[in-house]
Amino acid sequence: MPQHQPPARPRDSEASKARLLKAATDEFAARGIAGARVDRIGAAAEVNKALIYTYFGNKEQLFDAVMDAHVARVLDEVPFTPEDLPGYAGRLFDFLLANPHQLRLATWHRLERSGTDHEPQGLGTSMRQKTAAITQAQTAGLLTTTFTPEDLLVFTLALANAWMPTSPMATNDQAAEQTRQHRAAVVEAVRRLVAGIPTTQAS
Amino acid sequence: MPQHQPPARPRDSEASKARLLKAATDEFAARGIAGARVDRIGAAAEVNKALIYTYFGNKEQLFDAVMDAHVARVLDEVPFTPEDLPGYAGRLFDFLLANPHQLRLATWHRLERSGTDHEPQGLGTSMRQKTAAITQAQTAGLLTTTFTPEDLLVFTLALANAWMPTSPMATNDQAAEQTRQHRAAVVEAVRRLVAGIPTTQAS
DNA sequence: GTGTGTCAAATAAACAGTTAGTTGCACTAC
DNA sequence: GTAGTGCAACTAACTGTTTATTTGACACAC
Asked: What are the tens digits of pLDDT across the range A68-114?
């Protein structure tokens, strides 16, 4: 006859799901899908392992849920401005710096989950919207036509990521100053990418 | 009483090591350290699993050996030209395209092995040499001083990677044409980064 | 025979996923 | 109010499999 602990917490499936997502985010960001341990996620969330399967299905689907949430957050919190790509790069830089899990999760996804059918919700749509917006800005003469919209988007994202640490950094004054300089360099780099619309080169 | 096969292959530990490295490269590139299976590597190399431990120690050390070999290959095959960073980016692009495992291996390393003490042999030295060479080119007036040497190196590498597929691509004519255009865009992007020294262009 | 390369088999731990059952709680009937 | 009911939230223990790593014996070259 199994003994049960008195429940310290009131029953609340939504709160449990939220705690699971948080714990899963940490675990997946640190170790990826193959390296993540379902037991550890359950323990960290203080939730019984079996609930992971009732709420999310399996390990992969839990990862997908984590990805969906995080993709939604970037898209929501970093507004896209096709006529100001340097500014966009700067804001993306800031966001990734403030949310160190994001880049690692995205990278794990590329390595472990690309080639499967599942793509984070809203990502494809958002990419299409962004390239369309760039095309429009180019047509309006607000943006260089030296590059295709896809090139501009891909390069801007690449440059915003370029200086991002994959493992968490120290947070002293010297590091903060370095970070500020890296940010400035990224913005300047994108400025140079998009520079030279008006007169110098005719299209 | 164990049955033994007649030895189909002559004994050659060097050849076995080489086959193991090849098989390990494929396995690690596809699945990373946590996802890799020692059994699969042994089977693919047609080498008994136990030899992996004799020759390389354990799974992680085998991965490190794979990384060392691949880092050495990039450094060897892609000459660095600080006064012609666009050309370097182009050559790196070509190399990564011809060696699709490289980028994935490097990415797995960043995710799963950074923060440990092991760094691929020669990588730190090579980075230091490259930034020093950039500094020299800047002092000689051959290269923009808008960016620090570190910025220039990091951005060039980021742009060369930007269009690289993480999963293997189809190889039809249309894709080849797209690849050519991507390469040109990458080179042009780096050109814009380094542009704007006093005279128009030095040869 | 000695040493080195090779192998099948063994081992012990770790793993994702399941099951059968318990508990808290809102609601209803009285 | 309180006894009864249904159900969702939760749990401990377990299952069968997979895993990295080790072992001890075999075979061939010298």
From this structure: 999 999 999 999 999 999 999 999 999 999 999 999 999 999 999 98
Provide the pLDDT confidence category of residue B6 given band limits of 50, 70 and 90: very low
Written as one letter, the residue type at A170 is A
CATH of the domain at A104: 1.10.357.10
Is B24 domain-assigned? no
In a 10 Å sphere around its CB, with 0-12 CB exposed, 13-18 middle and 19+ buried, how is residue A160 labelled? buried
Percent share of chain B, pLDDT over 90: 75
How far are the Cα atoms of A99, B42, B135, B161, B188 from residue A179, in angstroms, in the given order?
14, 45, 21, 22, 27
Please give the nucleotide, over all strands, whose C1' is closest to the CA of residue A2. Answer: D12
| Binary contact (B115, A189; C-beta < 8 A) | no
Q: Which residue range forms the structural domain that includes residue A109?
A: 64-194
Of A34, A166, A182, the CB nearest to B114: A166
- Comparing alpha-carbon positions, the chain B residue that sits nearest to A169 is B115
- Asked whether residue B143 is assigned to any structural domain, the reply reads yes
Give the Cα separation of A5 and B199 in Å (integer): 78
Domain count, chain B: 1
Rounded to the nearest 5 degrees, what angle is found at the Cα of B152, between the Cα atoms of B150 and B158?
100
Neighbours of A150 (CB within 10 A): 18
The verdict on residue B60 lying in a domain is no
pLDDT confidence of residue A170 = 73
pLDDT at A201: 41
Inter-chain residue contact A115 with B162, CB threshold 8 Å: no
Q: What six digits make up the tokens of B58?
A: 């354990």
Residue A195 has pLDDT above 70, yes or no: yes
Residue A124 in contact with residue A68, Cβ under 8 Å? no
In a domain, A133, yes or no: yes
CA B138 to C1' C17 (Å) is 60
